[in-house]
Specification:
alpha+beta, 2 helices, 24% helix
């Protein structure tokens, strides 16, 4: 039995396989979002650093997310603002690169006052402060008006 190989077809087949494999590796990186979750721990009220407690007077009436570095640790502070009907809880923190800048997004959940706090202090695993912080809010509970 005499078997002949078509060398041209074999080369095209190898290039096709390489092209398909490269597509599975490269395309998701090009079009996928590079969003990383940030690990955090809620700091108990009696363990909140004094520097944070001192600056809370300036921010407690504002609805926002802040970040600060104290003793080499990055802390994120989320406040509910003047809306005293709700307490606040943090659902997640993500970090992504947008236009060469590091943007932190804090997902806050407004809950019934008894189930949450007026502000939350979180200790993160980050090593530096982000360039921008965004606060995304959603409501949980019976009264969903702000």
């Amino acid at each position: 039995m005499d078997v002949k190989f078509n060398m041209k077809g074999m080369i095209y087949g190898i290039f096709l396989i390489i092209f398909i494999l490269a597509g599975f590796i490269i395309l998701p990186k090009m079009f996928g979002e590079d969003i990383k979750a940030v690990d955090y721990v809620i700091v108990q009220r009696d363990s909140i650093p004094d520097k944070i407690l001192d600056m809370m007077d300036d921010y407690i009436d504002q609805e926002r997310a802040l970040a600060t570095i104290i003793d080499g640790k990055v802390y994120v502070i989320v406040t509910r603002g003047k809306n005293e009907e709700y307490g606040i809880d943090v659902e997640k923190i993500t970090l992504e690169d947008r236009d060469g800048k590091q943007v932190m997004t804090v997902g806050a959940v407004y809950k019934e006052k008894e189930d949450a706090y007026p502000f939350v202090v979180l200790e993160t695993n980050m090593e530096s402060l982000p360039d921008k912080i965004e606060l995304n809010q959603k409501f949980s509970g019976q009264n969903k008006s702000k």
